[in-house]
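Deliverable D4.2, example record:
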Amino acid sequence: MQKINFVIAFIHEAKPIIQFFKLTKFQSKPYAIYKSEQISLIISGCGKLNSAAACGFLFALDNQPAQWINFGIAGHRDASIGQAFIGNKVTDSDCGWHWTLSTQASILLSLSINTVAEPETQFNDECLYEMEASGFMTACIKYTSLENISVIKIISDNQQTSHQTLTAKKIKQLVSDQLGNLEQYINTL
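Output generated by the structure prediction step:
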C-alpha cells in the first residue's frame, strides 16, 4: 500500500478508521494527528477553511508522495442513509470553483459534491452536500496532482432524515459500516 493521508473533519468520523487501521496518536495540537507507517490522519474541524489549513499542516509535517483522501459525511436529496459515494467533481458553492476527479479505480458509485457553508436542508440539486471538500481540494492541488486526490462521503442525512438527528454514535456506525469498502478502495490505489 502506498502512503495515504486522510483529512477528516470530526473525531466521530475518524474514530472507526483510527481503530480499524490501528493508528496511534502522533500529536494533539494544533491538530489531532494519528499515524501508522503508511497512513496519516488529521482532524481538521468543520468547514472548508479548516480543511485547507489542516492539509497544509499535514503536508508540511510529512512532505512525502501520498494519496490524499477527504473522508466524511454528506447530505443528499434521496440517497439512502449509510450509502457511500466517491466524488467525481467538487464545486465550491460560494465562488463556483470546481475540480474534476478521476473515479476509475473506485468500487463506489460516484456523484458530484457541492461544498456549502452551512448544513443543507433543501437538496435542490442531484449532488452530495457537505462542508469541507472544496477547501481540501484548494490545498491539495498545491501539493499533488488530481489523480492522487479523492473525496469519499457517506450519506448521513436527506430530505427524510434531518442532519439534526445525527449523534456521535450514529456517525461512528455509518463510518464503521463502510470500512470494508474504504479498505478495498485504498487497496486499488
